[in-house]
Specification:
Structural class: alpha/beta
CATH topology: Rossmann fold
Helix content: 25-40%
Number of helices: 10
CATH architecture: 3-Layer(aba) Sandwich
Radius of gyration: 17 Å
Largest sheet: 8 strands, mixed
Number of strands: 8
CATH superfamily: NAD(P)-binding Rossmann-like Domain
Strand order of the largest sheet: 3-2-1-4-5-6-7-8
Distance between the termini: 32 Å
Length: about 260
């Protein structure tokens, strides 16, 4: 690191658990963020400010005025612009050293297969089960840690799915792809603005910890927040031997 970087990241470097080595690990890492909306905004911003060297940010959507109540990476002047590009501009204004690749398209299975293989950590900030399952499948295939968050109304949840650990479940172990879930979107139900900030910031924290090898991740634990009472509930989760996604893949290395 040069003198400017030592100054910029000094508050990280002062932490014994991080130090110079941890910060250098961040600078050399590559994070893939799926979604640049309510959750993706704080995720991308904190990864960028913390010094993650490369961030790939994928979102097919455009900034709308209704997003501005909670999606802090965007502003009124960018209404109509791609969210991924808008978030790139916001990160660049804070930390121009970070390389942000905005990808304006849907994160389909083919694209994810290539993109996940190149990332060190994946943060799923999408808003639908189909994308979440596609992201999970790619992460299992390439043995990449996945930080998954969700928020709707006043309810949020977050966990880490890291199938590099033999006993850790994947997303499909907990939410089987064949199960029927009612898709609830904020356009019809609404979302409490700070909720996405709380969950998204926690996703960023888990992603940074994984990249630096600091502390204990949320793998095997699902944390759920009821923001009405600001109460957290934690559920311990085990991998499912019969999971259609991760069963038989554990211990294998990505090609």
């Amino acid at each position: 690191m040069d003198d400017d970087q030592l100054l910029r990241y000094s508050r990280h470097i002062l932490l014994n658990e991080i130090g110079v080595e941890g910060q250098q690990a961040l600078l050399a890492s590559h994070a893939l963020v799926i979604g640049a909306g309510g959750l993706g905004s704080p995720v991308a911003l904190y990864l960028g400010t913390a010094g993650v060297g490369r961030i790939t940010l994928v979102d097919h959507d455009m900034v709308d005025v209704t997003n501005l109540q909670r999606q802090i990476a965007h502003n009124l002047s960018r209404v109509g612009q791609p969210k991924a590009e808008s978030a790139r501009q916001t990160i660049a204004a804070i930390n121009p050293e970070v390389q942000v690749l905005p990808v304006v398209q849907r994160a389909d299975a083919a694209w994810l297969d290539a993109a996940v293989a190149q990332a060190d950590v994946v943060l799923d900030c999408s808003d639908n089960f189909a994308t979440r399952h596609a992201v999970n499948a790619a992460c299992v295939q390439h043995r990449k840690p996945l930080v998954s968050g969700a928020a709707i109304g006043f309810d949020g949840q977050i966990s880490v799915y890291d199938t590099r650990q033999a006993d850790a479940p994947c997303y499909a172990c907990i939410f089987p792809p064949e199960s029927t879930f009612e898709e609830v979107r904020c356009a019809t139900m609404g979302v409490f603005a700070p909720l996405v900030g709380i969950i998204g910031t926690m996703q960023a924290a888990e992603g940074l910890k994984l990249l630096m090898g600091v502390g204990r991740s949320l793998a095997g634990r699902l944390q759920m927040l009821d923001a009405r009472s600001m109460e957290w509930t934690e559920i311990r989760m085990a991998r499912q031997p019969g999971c259609p996604v991760c069963a038989g893949r554990r211990g294998r290395h990505a090609p």
